[in-house]
Amino acid sequence: MNLILLFKEDYIEPGVVRLGGRRMTHIKKVHRAGVGDMLTVGMINGDMGSARVLETAPGYVDMAVILDTPSPAPLPLTLVLALPRPKMLRRILQTVASLGVKEIYLINTWRVEKSFWSSALLEPDRLENELVLGLEQSRDTVMPKVHLRRLFKPFVTRELPEIIQGKMAFTAHPGPWDVCPRSVSKPCVLAMGPEGGFIEREVATFLDIGFKTVSLGERILRLETAVPYIISRLY
Amino acid sequence: MNLILLFKEDYIEPGVVRLGGRRMTHIKKVHRAGVGDMLTVGMINGDMGSARVLETAPGYVDMAVILDTPSPAPLPLTLVLALPRPKMLRRILQTVASLGVKEIYLINTWRVEKSFWSSALLEPDRLENELVLGLEQSRDTVMPKVHLRRLFKPFVTRELPEIIQGKMAFTAHPGPWDVCPRSVSKPCVLAMGPEGGFIEREVATFLDIGFKTVSLGERILRLETAVPYIISRLY
Q1: Could you tell me the mean pLDDT of each successive run of 10 residues in chain A, 235 residues long?
Q2: pLDDT for B132-188, tens place per residue?
Q3: pLDDT tens, B92-123?
Q4: Domains of chain B, CATH where assigned
């Protein structure tokens, strides 16, 4: 937690927040902060700044907050990910939030196991919890939006063509394609497959609506390695 | 497992291997391979190729092996990592092996918890197990070398100056430094700190022997995200 994320409900008076639970424990146990110590904070979807500890009690920590710094620029990237298995999903959500991705579509594909869609992790609160951890890690405040799309064909053929308007669109897929370009620095949409990859018909569907199929080189990387790897190439 | 890694001991006659344990289970349960099916294989520290299933029995699978393809070029990168906590170490070893890193120094720094050095994961067999998983993921055969260095100062001041001879050397450290350069494509040594980072004195020690301090931008990334991110920038 390199930044403590604050929410409206945390304010007990103008400029003063009271934190309990996970954030309080972190402030006390990891930062070992006492009265007068300064911590980095950020308002959800707002500015970042610093907080001075006013009081620590068994059940809470009070801090005086000054928000005076804009959060880092968002990454102009929309990620379209085949829904990963729950354990992987947790890490991926944290990872993409920490990298500054703000639009994430989790979609069904042929090789996504049906059971993944009934994971409790897909409930809005649980998704948000993982995203918060990513924002706190990288010092960002802007909550990413996660969209769930359980039907591949309607999403890709009806919704996705609008999403890619004015953007470059890539499907990352192992094979003899051009390697993903470097330093594109423009708005992009990036589609990445599940364990085992997209099936050829899915790759063709993306191609039909204007995606370029690209590889990451000879090596086949796990999703959680491939995501930072390809984002670092694009931006 | 996108490649099944073979060892000398697997051969029961020239060109024929017999696999049991984890690899056999994977071939039967995940690949669902039967007699005649072809699988991608690679000889440890040797060539890659294909194997045809000859026989499956309750305790083993026999395959006829042809090795005819060189493994991917190694990454000309030496990684110097502050020893991460064991849970993180497992994933990091798999990740760096999958990315093609072949030289890894795990070192002590001020903020490395002493208890991490007594993890059973640091035993040679256990290290190798994790590295094998990374090689199998990315389709590589060349086993990375992991060097353990429990004393920061002697390592950095005596051994590291020789290691960086003829290479570019970078310390990744959050701060107002130049961002890590792109597409260096030369042999590099990259030092990365523990959770909480290197202390300033450590950064200065690296600087003294010729390392350039670089940042990854405004965001602070977890080690397992930062490693693929920075490798993708450098190569």
Answers
A1: 96 98 95 96 98 97 98 97 96 97 98 97 97 97 98 97 98 94 94 95 97 95 96 95
A2: 999 999 999 999 999 999 999 999 999 999 999 999 999 999 999 999 999 998 999
A3: 999 999 999 999 999 999 999 999 999 999 99
A4: 4-69 (2.40.240.20), 75-234 (3.40.1280.10)
Site from B220, B225, B231 to mutate, A interface, most A CB atoms within 10 angstroms: B225
Give me the DSSP letters along B52-121.
Answer: EEEEEETTEEEEEEEEEEPPPPPEEEEEEEEPPPHHHHHHHHHHHHHHTEEEEEEE--TTS-GGGGG-GG
Quick one: tokens of B184?
């260096």
Instruction: Give the end-to-end CA distance of chain A in Å, rounded to a whole number.
Output: 25
State how far the alpha carbon of B60 is from the alpha carbons of B3, B48, B176, in Å. Answer: 18, 21, 57
Locate B127 and state its tokens.
Answer: 């290290």
Selected residue of A90, A93, A219 to mutate for chain B interface (largest B Cβ count, 10 A): A219
Alpha helices in chain A (DSSP H): 21-29, 86-99, 124-138, 152-154, 160-163, 200-208, 223-234
A145 touches chain B (CB under 8 A): no
Separation CA B97–CA B106 (nearest Å) = 14
Q: Please give the sequence-ordered ranges of beta strands (E in DSSP) within chain A, or none if there are none.
A: 4-6, 11-13, 16-19, 38-43, 48-57, 60-69, 75-82, 101-107, 145-149, 168-172, 188-192, 212-214
B205 vs B153: CA distance, rounded Å: 8
